[in-house]
Amino acid sequence: MSRPIVATIDTAALRQNLAVARKAAGGSRLWSVVKANAYGHGIERVWQSLQETDGFGLLDLEEAILLRERGWKKPILLLEGFFHQEDLDILDRYRLTTSVHSNWQIQALAKAKLSAPLDIYLKMNSGMNRLGFQPEQVHNAWQKLRSLPNVGEITLMAHFAEAETAEGIAEPLQRIEQAAEGLDCPRSLANSAATLWHPQTHHDWVRPGIILYGASPSGQWQDIAGNGLKPVMTLTSEIIGVQQLGPGARVGYGGLYRASEEQRIGVVACGYADGYPRISPTGTPVMVDGVMTRIVGRVSMDMITVDLTPCPQAGIGSAVELWGNHVKIDDVAAASGTVGYELMCALAPRVPVIVV
Ligand SMILES: *Cc1c(COP(=O)(O)O)cnc(C)c1O
């Protein structure tokens, strides 16, 4: 028999979340962001449940090719653009829309021999200072691109560093307005947070990612709890061992947790080699046998120890939810000093996945 840990992907939740995102987006078209192997869910497993989308946003050419080979004919956007001149052959063959964030890419487009023009997302740097042209360079880049026979439709693209708050988008929006003045082209600005919370950013295409998987762009589940979003990934396992601790007994590597009184703890078949964060401290939420409790002690490679005090009936074989519908991935992440994005992306290849 195999180890009891399993990740379950809920395709009905994907469809529901896409509907929620679409409703939030108003009339804007929607790129479903499936980069990083669909945020760890598996692009092959999820894309069909997202077929109602207008396009897929991702950044690995392999993922784009996979979607084309499975029969996806609508647009695919390369969020990080192409990486080498030679990549343009693949963009041409598979008809991929690409972001363009640097001058060398404009030159590469000028030199390329394409069968037909490619649609371009002209990426501007609105203050995050990762990729993109400075606002004052946007017009020039646009003119250069417009003059190239290899370039089809040009959409202005920007990305927010802090779309959780109104203050976070005010300055970048101002820069975008300034850069876009006099340019007659579609725009795509909004990630999940902006799609949910800032309609003035929606424009022609929104680009939600995390909300499709049912987690919060702010890292706080409460922020999306009323939106009808549903967790897509549930990570479950079982109790495979029980220890009865006496007062003063310690648990796990480093003996980080010490029982102050008699206490039962359960050992769960899940560890950091499965993608559960090693850094998660005592107190991180977990559900055993339908009862909310907490992990105790150090997460090890293959096991986690949990407090069975609130669930005295639990024992070997009891069901454990590490995250999912009851234990929100945002809450596990918050307890661990990170965000749900990182946890879902880190699901390890050794964890069997079931699609329901
Ligand atoms: C990842 C990404 C998104 C989606 O971000 P979420 O916060 O997951 O909605 C949108 N746009 C770009 C350029 C991205 O890289």
Automatic annotation (TrEMBL):
The UniProt record lists the keyword Isomerase: yes
Catalytic activities: L-alanine = D-alanine
Top-level EC class as recorded in UniProt: isomerase
Domain of life: Bacteria
GO BP of this protein: D-alanine biosynthetic process
Enzyme Commission code: 5.1.1.1
Domain Alanine racemase C-terminal: 232-356
Binding site for substrate: 130, 301
Gene Ontology molecular-function annotations: alanine racemase activity; protein homodimerization activity; pyridoxal phosphate binding
Sorted UniProt keywords: Isomerase, Pyridoxal phosphate
Active site positions: 35, 253
Signal peptide: none
Cofactor: pyridoxal 5'-phosphate
GO cellular component, one term: cytosol
Similarity remark: Belongs to the alanine racemase family.
HAMAP family xrefs: Ala_racemase
Role played: Catalyzes the interconversion of L-alanine and D-alanine. May also act on other amino acids.
Record-given protein name: Alanine racemase
